[in-house]
TrEMBL record:
GO terms for biological process: chorismate metabolic process; salicylic acid biosynthetic process. It comes from Prosthecobacter vanneervenii. The keyword Methyltransferase does not apply. Coiled coil: none annotated. It comes from the Bacteria. This is chorismate mutase. The lineage of its organism: Bacteria, Pseudomonadati, Verrucomicrobiota, Verrucomicrobiia, Verrucomicrobiales. It holds the Pfam family CM_2. Its EC number is 5.4.99.5. Residues 1-100 form the Chorismate mutase domain. Keywords: Isomerase, Signal.
Length: 198
């Protein structure tokens, strides 16, 4: 009986370790989400300098299609990728609007170029997000989704982003991490019932 218990505890420990080990690091989803939003001040300034609107449906559709193609290539459901990045795009637009309202006058300096500086940086972050999403959704435990959401909320607040900005970003994250009825959920290994012999 003791040997069976030891084996069960060992296997359970490996499972919990694999689930807990997927978070953290400089390329975790919470960190990447903050990094993406950190570019939105520059995006807003660059758009203002060129007279471009905050909302660009054509550009947004192109971005979503590109992310879905990369996501499906990495084994992710296209709908989850769409929901995740739709949330990040909405959060980005809200942040740009906030920044422009807070800074009604142009900075006076040269705004970074959208095509050569900003978008390549955002593209790199997007690629890393896809990689992390693929890993998280394949290995995540149900409790991990709540922990990742909590960490993301805390990081966004610490970075100074308002709830209006954080909410759509978090909604996209939650939608991407939520499992469907067709996806297996990691569970605790169950001990095999044994009959005591006296």
């Amino acid at each position: 009986m003791r040997s069976v218990l030891i084996v069960v505890l060992f296997e359970w420990g490996l499972l919990l370790s694999s689930c807990a080990g997927i978070r953290g690091g400089s390329s975790s989803l919470p960190v990447l989400m903050v990094q993406r939003l950190d570019w939105m001040d520059e995006v807003a300034e660059a758009k203002r300098a060129k007279g471009l609107p905050i909302t660009d449906p054509k550009r947004e559709a192109e971005l979503l299609n590109a992310m879905m193609q990369r996501g499906t290539a990495a084994g992710l459901p296209a709908q989850k990728v769409r929901l995740f990045f739709s949330g990040q795009i909405q959060a980005a637009k809200v942040r740009q609007e906030e920044w422009l309202w807070q800074h009604p006058a142009a900075s006076g300096g040269k705004a970074p170029d959208l095509a050569t500086t900003i978008r390549p940086a955002l593209d790199q972050i997007g690629r890393k997000m896809i990689e992390r999403l693929a890993q998280e959704t394949q290995e995540i435990c149900s409790s991990d989704a709540l922990l990742i959401e909590k960490e993301t909320r805390e990081r966004l607040a610490k970075a100074g982003y308002t709830e209006t900005v954080a909410q759509p970003a978090l909604q996209g994250l939650i939608a991407a991490l939520r499992r469907t009825a067709h996806e297996p959920i990691p569970t605790k290994p169950q001990a095999t019932p044994t009959t005591s012999r006296r």
